[in-house]
Write a structure and sequence with these properties.
about 100 residues, mainly alpha, 3 helices
Length: about 100
């Protein structure tokens, strides 16, 4: 008769490897999301600067350009905050244990 202990150890090892790879994929997705936030912030800043530079004689365009620059800063800060929060949640072992139970 074959023993089930060898099979369960292999299954457990496969499960741990699957979990590790899933965390790695999630971490990479989190980094891609941060880069998207930064790319959006740069484009907002460039759009705002373009409006201010090209339409400096029109007050409403200057105001809109400055608002875009402000939204740019907000977007960058929000992206970094969300990245750090998700990174903490990904690496928090207690959250993983709670999920598995």
């Amino acid at each position: 008769m074959t023993s089930d202990t060898g099979n369960s150890t292999g299954t457990q090892r496969d499960s741990l490897e699957r979990d590790r790879l899933a965390r790695e994929r999630t971490s990479l997705a989190n980094e891609r999301t941060l880069l998207s936030y930064i790319r959006t912030a740069i484009m907002l800043l460039a759009s705002g600067a373009t409006l201010v530079k090209l339409f400096s004689s029109t007050f409403i365009y200057v105001v809109f350009g400055v608002l875009l620059a402000g939204f740019s800063l907000f977007t960058a800060i929000m992206g970094v905050y969300r990245y750090e929060e998700m990174k903490r949640r990904i690496t928090d072992e207690s959250a993983i244990r709670d999920y598995n139970e």
